[in-house]
Amino acid sequence: MLPSQLFATSDHYTGPGYESALQKQLASHASGIFTQKPHDIKVDLLDATTSDASLPCLNKEGVTNISEGWASLARCRCHEFVDTSSMARYLYDDRSKNYSTRVISIWQQHSWTPLNVSQDMLMLIMTYHKVAIEFLHVIYFFSRKFLEVEEAYSGAMWKAYRNNILEIAYLFKYPEQNQYPEEDGDPWSIRQTGVYHQLDTKAMKNIWIIIHPKKDAAARMQLDNCLKSPSESIEISRHPFLVHILLISTYVDNWRWYMAYYEEKLLILVRLMQ
Q: DSSP code of 152?
């Protein structure tokens, strides 16, 4: 099925047909995308709350006491959910609505296994946050794999702007060193990260759904640390597109060492053939 056919209902993603269309698409791919083991379900949600109401001003030397001035203006709440009901209780609690940046982290046990989220939990995440159905085009790249296919493809780029809501979704791939020694196989693997960003330009709230190839992915750890820092959390709240830079820049330098490794291998083969 072509993407244009797959997402034919996307213009009505907040209407009555949205949930039924989403449920149908998720169900048709459930076996390859979602873990079938309840004890593997783990989804992290991080809410960062900031306030610009009384940000400390710079003194004449352009210096301010960040630790004292910002500590009371930014706070971070971290939660791990292992079932849909506990996540639903949190999301529908009025106290959870006070955030400037929300990051939902989903990951795989390793890069060829299904996601550590259930179909019902992803359905809740997408419907509650009114995530456009086009994001499924990114999620489908995380289906269970048995062969190294589509290793070079980075795409599924999509964006839309409706009623003060900007949505961006994309997939990017990159090389990363694995735990295997060179004598046992290829020391490099191609990984992928899926990104969804929703920016409410009126309320200035940001929602991120990020799919990582493993729980301790470098980009996930860096982003979590930034949002737990009062000064950096406020900077991200003011300039949310910095998160895109952080995610991509975490891995882009790996291409240099990946190419250098295979260039050396290729040069050795060329010399042997001469």
A: T
